[in-house]
């Protein structure tokens, strides 16, 4: 009758027999990568010189093409006033192009022309660009007007305009969708597709209400799509279905992305990839400080993904 | 009536993973310590409204808080420590790295009420001037130079209007000009809300730092030995600076991941029959087979119900079937060529002043 009373200490004596078939105790892995941990990873894997190389689009392009990685094409690189004076847009520029500052960030100072009529180009919004407009913009880029606080001079990178893969272009009303693949060394960890909307003004920037769509690494299909934290299944502007969309040439995308970090010297990198109509996947940029919002979009923790490929967090 | 709330909190606490719990507890601890220190600082404040000219020559910080001007340097490391806390534990975004600390130092020298007034008016003046300055199309250095001059103008005007002994020379004019510039960039990039949020954060952090700097504990440490405060904060920052966990604001940011996963798990639970807590069949092939499945299908007799027709003999498919759209839906047809067509006013955004972007031919 005292069994109930003595149960407290007796229960310690009776240990269940271990026979090797029990489940291992579930250790909840810390799955989410916070910005503190990301910074520590960057300090660990991304050397200063590689970060500088990634930040300079021209240097990054040189390093990538040296490894045979397909990048967006180049029309011209204007890095001083001598070259600027020798440059004549009507003679040297194709019908559609993009001018980018080599050290710009977050799309500042990027000028796009989609078509040409005579000596006048037109932006996507229909605004005409005369030769003097174009020259003035290039000059502003070369003077470092878009290159952050510290840079005094910069290079203007002129590229032919990317024409998106038709199946991808059909998803969006305007603008160029791009893929972001996060890699640790040469292992792709997570991928998302950024789709511009009318609200984002054609820019594939998540802050500006572009759609972030999580892409399954194995199959290359969109698993879920988010706009500003709201889950959606169809594009709000075109009405096309996003969930289940198969990114064309997915294996090639992963292969490209996994080569990018090592080519530039980055251990932890985020590669921005576009799918060109003719050339397939092309690298536009490699980020040394990729954002962590991708975790919310893919519903996966980057830390867990890294642990899965063997990263040891201490 | 609070039992529901308490129960809810308890449930949330039970469900939370250690990765969420730890930063939450740390944040709670930091918040509590800060609240105590700020309360101490507030209690230590002798006067809020007195003007410096009534202090007969003594420094404002000495009269209001008993902090000697020679000791102002000593509280700087404490400010740096708080900035580290706010950034890597709480995750508050502010303009600049140590801007709040410098502003707090200026507050100490100007006064608890006059400090924010001076800051507010000079930033406001800069804000009002910026759109007009941008029209002049100066270089960045020129723009900042004019901004500095105008902020100084406001400061001197304030000194003349309010009190000639107001110590506005301690005000970090250049930091202020940079804050105004950053405000504008943020506004352009992420909109007014985000910029206002950051400005508010900067202001609140500097207020907190100001009151922590003059709390009893801080003053006691400084009085004890001038070496104690810098050494103590250096060691504390070195220890806390190694923190690699989640920030408090990141719990909110990534909460959807945990919440959605939990919801998915709950939905899975509901599909299971009563009395079974976990689904052990996950991942394993379903080996259960009913007897009826094994039976051979009955051989059909007579005419087949489906007669194959040659594809050529069929009628052409309906237009709708080809397009794959439900009848009556007015979705926009995908058109990959449209990216090259001219669009006028498609973004329906009001024309904003974009500093560095060519908006029209007149801008050039």
Notes on the protein architecture:
The complex is a heterodimer of chains A (314) and B (364). Chain A has 314 residues and is α+β, with helices and mostly antiparallel strands. Chain A folds into 2 domains: 31-72 and 163-314, ATP-grasp fold, B domain (D-amino Acid Aminotransferase, Chain A, domain 1), CATH 3.30.470; 73-161. Chain A contains 11 helices and 14 strands. Chain A has helices at 3-13, 35-45, 48-55, 57-66, 81-86, 89-92, 131-142, 166-169, 250-264, 294-298, 302-308; strands at 76-78, 97-101, 111-113, 115-117, 120-122, 128-129, 156-160, 178-184, 187-195, 211-215, 222-227, 230-232, 268-276, 280-287. In chain A, strands 12-11-10-9-8-13-14 form a 7-stranded antiparallel sheet, with helices on both faces. A 4-stranded antiparallel sheet of chain A has the order 1-7-2-3. Chain A has a 3-stranded antiparallel sheet with strand order 4-5-6. In chain A, β5 and β6 form a beta hairpin. Chain A is globular and about 60 Å long. Chain B has 364 residues and is mainly α. Chain B is built from 14 helices and no strands. In chain B, α2 (18-44) packs across α9 (192-213), α4 (76-90) packs across α9 and α5 crosses α9 (192-213). The longest helix of chain B has 27 residues, at 18-44. Chain B is flat. The model of chain B is unreliable at 281-295 (pLDDT under 50). At the A-B interface, α2 and α7 of A face α2 and α12 of B.
Element-by-element helix/strand order of chain A: HHHHEHHEEEEEHEHEEEEEHEEHH
Strand order of the largest sheet of chain A: 12-11-10-9-8-13-14
> Taking Cα atoms only, what radius of gyration of chain B do you get, to the nearest Å?
33 Å
> What's the CATH H-level homologous superfamily of the largest domain in chain A?
ATP-grasp fold, B domain
Along the chain, the helix and strand elements of chain B come as HHHHHHHHHHHHHH
Beta-strand proportion of chain B: under 5%
Please write the CATH class name of the largest domain in chain A: Alpha Beta
The helix tally of chain A amounts to 11
Q: In CATH terms, what is the fold-level topology of the largest domain in chain A? A: D-amino Acid Aminotransferase, Chain A, domain 1
